[in-house]
Design goal:
Blueprint (H helix, E strand, L loop, with lengths): L12 E5 L10 E2 L2 E2 L1 E5 L4 H18 L10 H14 L1 E8 L2 E3 L3 H10 L2 H12 L7
Antiparallel strand pairs: 1-4, 2-3, 4-5, 5-6
Helix pairs in contact: 1-2, 2-3
């Protein structure tokens, strides 16, 4: 017997423990691991962050003329913005201090240490949302 509730996501966030981009060693400072917790794509807040940016590009594509110039750097910034807005917390040591989380600070960190973006995306893609936590 099946129950559709068994086929709905059971978790809304995922915590990614950061790794060195070349050695894959766990990143830590003074014995404390560095991690980022983010919302998963099925959550309403994630969808709002993503779709608000998608609408911008759809509107550009529907504009006058047959060719559209898209700002690729703007698209990159939008990607960072979605990651930052869907981050709910972290433990990150950077620049000689533990960095307090804010969306603006997340945008800065994700742009400077861009290997984090790949790790967060991989964790998001591999999240087992049907497993009760």
């Amino acid at each position: 017997m099946s129950d559709l509730m068994d086929l709905t996501p059971q978790i809304d966030t995922i915590t990614t423990y950061l790794k060195h981009p070349t050695t894959e060693e766990a990143l830590e400072h003074d014995g404390h691991p560095m991690w980022v917790e983010r919302l998963l794509p099925h959550t309403e807040d994630y969808k709002k962050a993503q779709f608000s940016r998608s609408a911008k590009y759809i509107n550009q594509a529907q504009g006058e003329g047959t060719t559209q110039d898209f700002d690729l750097y703007g698209a990159y910034q939008d990607q960072i913005g979605v990651m930052a807005e869907t981050t709910v917390g972290w433990q990150i040591y950077m620049g000689g201090e533990w960095v307090e989380f804010s969306v603006e600070k997340a945008k800065e960190v994700y742009a400077k240490a861009d290997f984090i973006q790949q790790q967060l995306k991989e964790a998001e893609d591999n999240a087992e949302v049907f497993t009760k936590g």
